Amino acid sequence: GIIAWGILILVVVIVALVRPGKRSVSTVYWTAAQQWWASQDMYGSKELTQAGYHGFLYFPQSAVLSTPLAYLPLGVAEAVWRALGLSVLAWGFWRVAKLVALHSRGGPGLWFALASFLGIPTLTGSAQNGQFNIIITGLMAHALVDLFYRRWWRAALLLALGIALKPHVLVF
Questions:
Q1: Of 9, 27, 29, 68, which sits most exposed with the smallest number of CB within 10 A?
Q2: Is 55 in a helix, a strand, or coil?
Q3: Letter string b/e over residues 146-156, b meaning 16 or more CB atoms within 10 A of that residue's CB
Q4: In degrees rounded to 5, what are phi and psi of residue 53?
Q5: 116 Cβ partners below 8 Å, 6+ apart?
Q6: Distance between the two ends of the chain, CA-based, in angstroms?
């Protein structure tokens, strides 16, 4: 499990550094962040994404939260974003695996390996594109564990951060 995550993060980071901005949707957020701070219309961006040309589509908070990456060199920003998202997700998988192990047969390593085996192939495309879905899925996994343990404030903070990044978290 952990070796597969390490390899995935390493490969995705190398690709992001070698081919910054290629097959990336995260640049839409960074452009919006720069436009926000320049008092420009961030919904008027026409950055090319995997889906074609479209402007920024999300809550303004996600652009503001993207600010630290918006001013880094593109390759560095792409690499940091992907490594951060995948790390948050892998850690979330580990926390969920530990929770499942408490209530079933097998240790957390087994459940983490199984989740990794099933999850990594389905998330590789999003990781390569710099999708925010990676980090919000990780935030939801962390929130799930915190909800189980009745850590209400921490779960609420994680879910609020997820909603700020992408409104899809509202479903959770």
A1: 68
A2: coil
A3: bbeeeeeeebe
A4: -90, 130
A5: 1, 4, 5, 90, 93
A6: 26
- Cβ–Cβ under 8 Å, residues 126 and 168: no
* H runs (alpha helix) in the chain: 2-18, 26-37, 60-65, 67-70, 74-102, 108-129, 133-148, 152-165
Q: Which 8-state DSSP code applies to residue 130?
A: T
Structure-block tokens of residue 142: 């962390």
Cα–Cα distance for residue pair 140/46, rounded to 1 Å: 30
pTM, two decimal places: 0.88
Burial class (CB in 10 A: 0-12, 13-18, 19+), 122: exposed
Question: Can you read off the two tokens belonging to residue 19?
Answer: 């081919």
Residues 108 and 130: their CA atoms lie apart, in Å, by 28
Q: Give the distance from CA 22 to its chain's centroid.
A: 18
pLDDT for residue 2: 83
Given a contact cutoff of 8 angstroms between Cβ atoms, the answer to whether 26 and 85 are in contact is no
